[in-house]
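Appendix B. Raw example, untouched.
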Amino acid sequence: MTTTSGLQVRGLTVCTTDGRPVVDGWDLGACRGGVLALLGPSGAGKTIALLAVLGLLPPGVQQRAGTVDWDGRARPGGSAAAGWRRQHVGYVGQDPRGSLHPLWPVQRIVGELGGAVVESLQAVGLDPAAVRSRRPHQLSGGQAQRVALARALARAPALLVLDAPPSALAQPTLELVAAVVRDRRDTGRQSTVLVTHDARLAEQLADVVVRVGPPPLPRAAATVHRDQTPRSAAQTPAQTPALTVRGLELGHHGSAPLLTGGHLELHPGEFVAVRGVSGSGKTTVLRALAGLQPPAAGTALAGEKVLPWAVRDRAEPGCIALVAQDPAASLNPARRAGA
């Protein structure tokens, strides 16, 4: 594809140190005012391609071929690439919280490279007065995602790179990202690159969709037979709840309680969804149930047995398992996947 301005990538090839291609001869382009979506399954090379474009390849992979041009000029290499990124690029990676400096308050994080802090926080739906002095550990997952986006947008970058928002962002934040991408496209002066697994999102937002990786396997046809005969209350055997929580009270970093008088009964076979806005305590509820963040008050029963709040006090520590909002950060970096 040909662009007279913005981003143009030709023949990009990235290999592992043993010569195995991860990205093989890709051509990509996002003109000024354009939106490029990279669509493909996990492991197809989307993130590696982005990092190569930005001059941020990690150890273990090398760019073997290809050119990266910005506004008709080669993107600088080596240490000069950092200056180019500071001048032109806003980037939100797959791990928004992990990209925030853990010791800096939000105001410093968003304003690190200049730009309007208050306006950027307001643009992503955050109250500057409420969050500007907080550090990352004092933010909810959704708030951290929005702060990372605010930092990327603070200087109205000419090139915005968003890596896999559907997998990393909460739904309200994802809708906000979609609005940001549309606004940037309307200016006609800014380029956006979006990495996603979501074909519908890509088609909605992008001017050009590049599909990478193997095609999805066809679904096998199957016939599912279920007993559709309704059962009366008298026919349904009484079940002891698998989990019962009463009087749950959750605090949050010394502020007013997030939740008081919480009650939950989860029966075998049930699926319960917890919904709410960013910062309302959804993740804190799940961490309390998993034994990672004891509540201020409340009792819990697993079946008919009292369930201690602290995981170290539980006879079966793994009786409640948590898949965290940030899976990568919850993995021990010193251990292999099998362990």
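End of appendix B.
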